[in-house]
Structures are given as structure tokens and as C-alpha cells.
Amino acid sequence: MSKPLDRRRHPWRDDLAALSLRGKVDAPRYVEGQQQQIAAPLASLRNAPEPQAMLLTQGLRGEIFTVYDRQGEWLWGQLESDGYVGWLRAARLSAKPAAPTHYVSVARSHIYPRPDIKTTPVAVLSMMAKLRVVQSRGRFVQLSDGGYMMASHVHPLGDWQRDFAGVAARFLNTPYLWGGRSADGIDCSALVQMALGACGVAAPRDSDMQEAELFTALPGGIQNTTLQRGDLVFWPGHVGIMWSPSELLHANGHHMMTVIEPLKTALLRIKAETGPPGCVKRGTA
Fold first, then answer.
1. I need a labelling partner for 164 at 20 to 30 A (CA). Which of 20, 29, 151, 200 fits?
2. Residue 112: beta bridge partners?
3. How far is it, in rounded angstroms, from Cα 58 to Cα 44?
4. 82 in the same domain as 24
């Protein structure tokens, strides 16, 4: 028997489904989606078309969102970057996508109205927001919408970082936010996803998906493995990055921020809460 499709990553509800899912799921109607692009710095994806509905994840500027349904100011669809499905406000989108050329490579950076750091910023973008750069202006790059950013804060797409643990450390002290995916607030799996993304590795959104799909499991488990920087340690509903053989870097709800702490301390605390780690995975990024 085939495994049921995960609705987190497949646009399928009881009343409709994406046209691409015809023959795979039963639905009263199938809809061909329309691609739009996130124009706001951040777009919150929720599990219902309500401002107080649970935050599932967040889309970043420049990401594509395929729309399948609309209820008032809310659109239901799917993020192209990791396939996540949910509701976001239509005002966060543009119906005229512009092909990005660069991505934000620091935790956060301002957009200025002119190439002058003394001007009042018009927006703040987080790491992995995507931009279309049209020209260089000294220390700045000019964006297709007329704004300016520091050239040292953006990299061309394809010019990836090398040390994903080091990239993740740029989020140290960032507040913990369930469903958060930015320097304003981030959760454990988004920290992994953002850091790997900056290194050119596409990672799924949630920790269970990452445990199933990323890298190679170490057969000895955490008790019989010599850990190294960049290893991923998974617990039920949680993931952390080894900063060193004895230190864990993770966004967590205990500290309510991203921290580096002794692995032994984290193991004891999390074991009391959810149990021992399930596995350790190692790869290259």
C-alpha cells in the first residue's frame, strides 16, 4: 500500500486539490494554480484564513507562491521553495514575478531608498530573501524596484556559503518562534533549512522531513559516534546542529532563542521532555 500524501507538502483539501494531483487524490474539483511572488519582506503562512491562526511557516521576499484558492484577502497555495501549503495574505504577493539574481547572505539587512546609509531604511530583509539586482553603485547594489542594499550583504545565486554551522551561528540570540523562518524569529528546523539553503542545499521544512530526507544516518547513534561540526542531531520534534564535538547549536523553546550550549546539558534536559535523540545524520554542505 502506498504511503498517503503529506498534506503539508501537497495542495489538497477535502473540497479541492491541485490539478497536478488528479489521479493521486480524490477531490470534487481540481485547480490549475497561478504563480505569484512574495513582494513583502516576510509572508506568514497559516493553517486557516485568519490572522490569529497557527503559524505554519513563513515565505521570504522573492519566493514563488502558487495560488489555488482565495477567500477574501487570503490566498491558499504552496511555496515553491519547500512545498509547504497554507494561507497567506494576498497583499504580500505580486502577480508579476521578477527572476531573482541574488540572495541575502547575512541574518538581516536594510533596503535604503538611496545609496546612503544615513537615509531611513524602507524595509529589512532576512537571510535567503531573493532579489533582482540591476546594477552596482559603489558599496551598494540597486534592486529592480529602485531600492539599495549593501553589496557585501548579498551574493549571486549559485555563489553559496561553505560552512553551514557557521551560517546558522549568524542567528545566535534570535528569538524562538514556532513556524518562524527569519531573523525576527526562527524555529529549530528553519534554522537548519536556512543555513543549508545559504550553502546551496535544499532542505525540507520540518524536522521529521529533515530526519527522513537529509544526509546519512550514522549507525552508532549518538552514544557510539564521534560527533563533528555540522552533524545533525534529531529528537522527536526537534533538531540541532553540532557546533563542535561537544556543543549543540539550536533554536529551542527552553531558552526561547538560538543558542550554543553543551551537548550533555541539552541531552539531559530534552530526554526529560521528549526522550533521547532518534538519530544523528552527517553530510556535506
1. 151
2. 148
3. 4
4. yes
Q: How many helices (H) and strands (E) does the chain have?
A: 4, 25
Are 199 and 232 in a shared domain? yes
Q: Answer yes or no: do 124 and 169 share one domain.
A: no
In angstroms, what CA-CA distances link 278 with 122, 216, 240? 44, 13, 12
Query: Domain range for residue 109?
Result: 102-156
Q: How far from the centroid of its chain's Cα atoms is residue 202's Cα?
A: 10
Residue 63 carries which side chain, given as an amino acid letter? Answer: E
Q: How many domains does the chain have?
A: 3
Give the amino acid at 199.
Answer: C
CB of 42 within 8 A of CB of 58? yes
Separation between Cα atoms, residue 59 and residue 67, nearest integer Å: 13
Kindly state whether residue 9 falls inside one of the protein's structural domains.
Answer: no
Half-sphere exposure of 195 (CA within 13 A, CB side): 30
C-alpha cell at 208: 521529521
Q: Are residues 30 and 126 in the same domain?
A: no
Pick the closest to residue 106 from 205, 192, 183 (CA basis): 183
Q: How far apart are CA 84 and CA 245, in angstroms?
A: 33
